[in-house]
Amino acid sequence: MCHARRVDDYRALNRASWDERVPAHAASPDYKLAQYEQDPNFIGDVVRFDLPRLGDISGLRGVHLQCHIGTDTISLARLGARMSGLDFSGPAIDQAQSFADRLGLEVDFHQADVYDAVAVLGEASYDLVFTGIGALCWIPSIERWARTVAGLLKPGGRLFIREGHPMLWALEGSKHPGLITLGYPYFETEAPMVWDEGGTYVETDVEFTNNLTHEWNHGLGELVTALMNAGMEITGLTEHDSAPWEALPGHMSQEPEFGEWRLTENPERLPATYTLQAIRRS
């Protein structure tokens, strides 16, 4: 449920929500930690979905921004990159580091706000910046984020992002069959959308108490323009009709290969996610 209430420190509010959900996410079968432990070649579905676009990343120095409990970070490390991860949640970073250590992987995780990434990780230090599904909605300024990405990358370094499409984030499902409405902003707004919702996006029986969050949408044109203004060159943009979670409950069906969800009827009508690539110009 979206409300108009807000607090000044959106980071503290959002961090409390994410901190509380870490143990439930690590224990949920949806994050597949058991598969990572049982199979040294296992990589998560989100990374596997994009393998044709990701290509060979062996030997690259990479960082995964807003990495949460680090499963996608670990997947990238298993593909040969020397990975770091960064997230603002202390419990998430502790979980990610302990899991990577248990798997015998050389991955280092850092607790920091994404806007502080250059100060924490070093300027022009990386060949690859990766960001996954559900990250950009937690930041208020896409321009500032783009400058952060450019600051982390070496000249010629590459950004790779798969994210929920801003069109999807702007939609609101309905209990009426087939009815979906435009319920939320498509473009970035100064004021956040303030949500008060229990539960989470993975399978769990845990009941949470920190349910108030602040979120923002960012139009696709705003993202592309922000990256170009930061000295990045767009090298790829693919829109997909599927998402790795049931974004519009009651309106979507799941396919088996990657576990992705798309509209049950006329899936060609909705861009649900996108994959964008860009390089930092010299």
UniProtKB/TrEMBL annotation:
<dbReference type="InterPro" id="IPR029063">
    <property type="entry name" value="SAM-dependent_MTases_sf"/>
</dbReference>
<feature type="domain" description="Methyltransferase type 12">
    <location>
        <begin position="64"/>
        <end position="159"/>
    </location>
</feature>
<protein>
    <submittedName>
        <fullName>Class I SAM-dependent methyltransferase</fullName>
    </submittedName>
</protein>
<dbReference type="InterPro" id="IPR013217">
    <property type="entry name" value="Methyltransf_12"/>
</dbReference>
<dbReference type="GO" id="GO:0032259">
    <property type="term" value="P:methylation"/>
</dbReference>
<dbReference type="GO" id="GO:0008168">
    <property type="term" value="F:methyltransferase activity"/>
</dbReference>
<keyword id="KW-0489">Methyltransferase</keyword>
<keyword id="KW-0808">Transferase</keyword>
<dbReference type="Pfam" id="PF08242">
    <property type="entry name" value="Methyltransf_12"/>
</dbReference>
